[in-house]
Amino acid sequence: MSVKNKCYTLIASDGKTKATVVPDRGGWVSSIILPFASGEREILFQHDYAWDSEIKSLLGGLPFVFPICARLSRGGSEGLYLYDGKQYQLKIHGFSWYEKWTVENITENSIEIVLRDNKNTLERYPFKFEVRLKYEVLPGKLLCHQIYQNNEAMRSMPYYAGFHPYFLIPDDKKKVTVNFSATRRLKYNDTLTDIIGEQETLKMPSSISNPEINEQLNILGENKCATLNFPNGDEIKIDVTENPDYFSYLQLYTIPEKPFFCVEHWMAFPNALNTVSGVRWLKPAGTETSVYEISV
Length: 296
Fold this sequence. Notes:
six-stranded antiparallel sheet
């Protein structure tokens, strides 16, 4: 473990697998270094503005998103949702990615960070909660152990969390492929704020340069693992290893001219907080757990 400018670098027992976590910047994982057969390398992309003093948008790297994934829209107003007769406003992907997290436990290869409700969150999301993430590096992999706690005594809490990794693509995108097993593919409206139907599932594996796969939301089968395969033989695996059915949605996203590709595990679809049908409801004083994994 090393600490610099409130950046905590975790080091696995192999001395090669590393991750850097920045609690003050949304509990952000800014770097993951994995040991491939071809050598050790950084696997995350950062936007040019990643270290600006003000956080205005997702930074690249590996953001964790809560209490929603993607966008909300109600009555034509983006970011708006209704709960118990009152309107609230949430940014895309909620607030976890820009709120400051508290560090609770640190070891050489792990860090535990916590986000609790506060004045800012309660104005946007009227629930008392605690989200606890433990990032742990082991040889060849990063784990994120999650605990979701509803601290409301009488009310169930609606939420749907997700992971938004920006994988660095050092090669020609045409030569890199993504692969996963989906049972359905959903169709967005023009503003990407709602699901309006379904379409034929994507043919896998696919080059990540294929424009047909960008901004596509898929429903995974029993196997929640997705892979990125590089022309030199490197493979990155993205999976959910505990309570995998919590993360049944897989979103694909890129900006064609930028050297990254996002493979995002979500708990639900955009605007689920308004449609209600797809949202998770955590019982009063209830807890849910899961484990997310990125590995070679």
